[in-house]
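agent> fetching stored inputs for the adenosine-5'-diphosphate docking request
agent> found them:
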Amino acid sequence: MRVVSGIQPTGNLHLGNYLGAIRQWVAMQHQAESLFFLADLHALTVAIDPKELAANTIEMAATLLAAGIDPDKAILFNQARVPAHAELCWLLQGTARMGWLNRMTQWKDKAGKNREGASVGLFTYPVLQAADVLAYQATHVPVGDDQRQHLELARDIATKFNLDFGVELFTLPEPFISPAAPRVMSLRDGTAKMSKSDPSDASRINLIDSDDAIAQKLRKARTDAEPLPDTMAALAERAEARNLVTIYAALAETGADAVLAQYAGQGFGAFKPALADLAIAVLSPIRERLTRLLDDRAAVATVLEQGGERARGLAAPTLLAAQRAMGL
Ligand code: ADP
Ligand code: NA
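agent> prediction call returned; pasting tokens
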């Protein structure tokens, strides 16, 4: 089993990123051969500030290390240091069809009405994603709901390539759905995803937030005046309450019903401080490690360099085989 997954090096990671993605990676590195990369090439599909991109890449790598990614267990690198990603992407662009990419809902969402003004890279983004995983013969790719369609596309591209060139080259990657990955919602609106793009900082808990900031944001989180029920089903119409219980369960690594069994009948006046204590207990060690790592950015860069070297070695035979199959 080989797992490959990437994350864009955008700044300011939040609790949603941690519980929904990063913590799954940390667990995965013990279960499978794992390659995790900072998707700095994907970041180029929208306008970027080079200085910011460089800083975000190091900060994101530091965050992953602080959260528990172990460079002795997982290969951690940034995409740009492994040219096979971009090269294979180009080779696969002869295989991918315009119609396939046109159907991608993320393309439609992100380009919106301004297709003519969107970058070409935004359109071919899923082909680079296909190259990211096919280059390593990944067997499994962790995907959230929003990425399922892109993984399906990677499988279609791999299948057509193998067929067109009469080779058994690319492994078809399977989705790896982690049952423990919750969808964390905004603290201000239980129907919106917690996101770094939300203009309200109070809507999210950032991994760099101080203990006081965490406590304050949770204290001010939107809720209702009802006490907690004893099942999640009874919270169907109470999005904000459901979200806080979901967050508690994820942080405590338990089930939501177990949390409700403990807090049923109590109001948020009691629940929120307990949630804050738990969030601080989980997040403050990560923040402290992150602070230390950011004091030595060169050491973080070295981890990425070493990971890049290992990744280049793993991707090289597949890239060469793809070139050979195509007469290059
Ligand atoms: P954002 O929505 O803040 O821009 P990204 O889209 O960069 O976050 O997501 C990075 C990773 O974190 C992805 O794997 C994504 O599925 C996960 N993720 C982002 N927001 C959440 C959330 N609110 N709940 C759970 N997982 C999330
Ligand atoms: Na996003």
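agent> quick read of the result: The first helix runs from residue 15 to 28.
agent> awaiting further instructions
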